[in-house]
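Q: What structure does this chain adopt?
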Amino acid sequence: MNFLSGVMLNNDLLQQIKGNFPYEPTEEQEITIKFFVDFLFSPKSESVLLLKGYAGTGKTTLISALVKTIRHIRSKCVLLAPTGRAAKVFAQNASHPAYTIHKKIYRQKTFSNEMDNFQLAPNLHRDTLFIVDEASMIANEGLAGAAFGTGRLLDDLIQYVYSGEGCRLMLIGDTAQLPPVGEEESPALCPEMLAGYGLEVMECRLTHVVRQLETSGILYNATRLRKQIVGEDFFSLPVVKATGFADIRIITGSELIEAISDSYDHAGMDETMIICRSNKRANLYNRGIRNTILYREDELNSGDLLMVAKNNYYWGSENKELDFIANGDVAVVRRMRRVREMYGFRFADVVLTFPDYDDLELEVKVLLDTLHSDTPALTREQSEHLFNAVQEDYKDITVKRERMKKLKEDPYYNALQVKYAYAVTCHKAQGGQWKRVFIDQGYMTEDMLTPDYLALYGFHPYYGNALSGELAQRTVNREPGTVERKEVEAFQFYQELLSDYSGSS
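A:
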């Protein structure tokens, strides 16, 4: 039985999708809508639709129209994304709940600190379309294949979806984006890889940029960069054109503090972001911004912006509005209570509000150690140490299941891992949206160029998707010794950044 058998006629569905599309579709978009319909009416249940699209080509709007139509005809769909933040943005754009892939397809066998304790959950859905956004981030090996299920996320996703009766999968992404960590290409966007699962692959592409191409410097430079990537031109530094565009400008180091301060005053602190290549550089910026621009001396102050560094299912579990606190979620410190050292770590009781959830207020326990670390969150060794140390408090409980239950409910073990959110790595920024973004390229020479650098920086098409306001780019493509003394004196943390121009990330 096909996915929409007996629901409506092929042409009726096509017209409904077009009716929910807010613009007159381009020729490419018309073809894509027809692909949607052919895919949903296909008699072959084991088929997959692969939608590749450049920034500004209308992917988001098309998917929103599709989801709206599916809901209208009382059919079923599930929206997924590789990260919590990407899932939240996907949900907002589509006006439909979205989940992380991990949360949806895995379940924990028994509670422990071991990540390989998660197995594939049964798919109880029937006749359901699973739509996955940001599919370029889906790993199948390498460093990102952390030990959930088989350790191969794409394998597990395919297995989960097609184990459900009448279910099928749609993957959305952009081949110009970075592949998963440790992999040379994005396996989920490779038709040959998908066909290897025995699936019939339907592939469509959106290449015609329709969103603000003439007036947007972001999209203009994203398109130029894409051509450089497609042409495999990895031997010259990307040239950024800023003249003639209102949404992009190149600034020098001496202008940086004033530019960030101006953005805080006019766009707002929560609508301003500095994007860096590494946690080390993000830490330098966060420290410099708090000390030099915000004049904050305490470790945490009321009004500080924090970004969650790891999914947390403990603090939001009793709140219908929140469900869980996702990796990448931003929170604002409202009140700081006591700080306590326990188990070799430092913890603080803090009242946070979450702007993305109508300023929902929660009192949580946060782990202060991750604020300053150069790692994304606690290392595996640190996590194991915390697990074992907290478990010692419950060693008098002889029944392991009961002891694990107590540990699972322990607020220190479940402390929220956070970092300052004034500057973040590009991986943390994935799925985010801000009005003004500052990109730190760092010191680069032509011999340091790699394909990843071009995909990661310059003007990556992903940021073209994310940005709607002014993009200010700090360029430091000079030898450190050529930076004028007055620029160094202009702000304290710039000097620290200069010392880090080794070309490594």
